[in-house]
Automatic annotation (TrEMBL):
GO terms for cellular component: mediator complex. This is Mediator complex subunit 11. It is found in: Nucleus. GO terms for biological process: regulation of transcription by RNA polymerase II. Keywords: Nucleus. The keyword Magnesium does not apply.
Length: 76
């Protein structure tokens, strides 16, 4: 027979294992559920990312123009 401390440790370990299994089942179930609104959200996120890329591109061009202006003013 196991000592009392080992028995309670095993019970706690078993309880933690059951909690982990339950959590994993819930996460897997949630990941597999149908989410009809995600596609709408996806389009908005992609559009936002594209807009951010456009802004970054414009900023790069403006920085290049500023650099050219500074170079021209120093050579004059």
């Amino acid at each position: 027979m196991l000592p009392q401390s080992q028995s309670s440790s095993l019970q706690r370990l078993n309880h933690v294992e059951q909690e982990i299994q339950t959590t994993l089942r819930e996460e897997i179930k949630s990941a597999c559920e149908y989410r009809p609104f995600e596609k709408c959200d996806y389009s908005a996120r992609i559009a936002n990312e594209i807009c951010c890329k456009k802004v970054e591109y414009v900023l790069e061009k403006l920085d290049a123009m500023q650099k050219n202006i500074e170079e021209c003013s120093t050579t004059s």
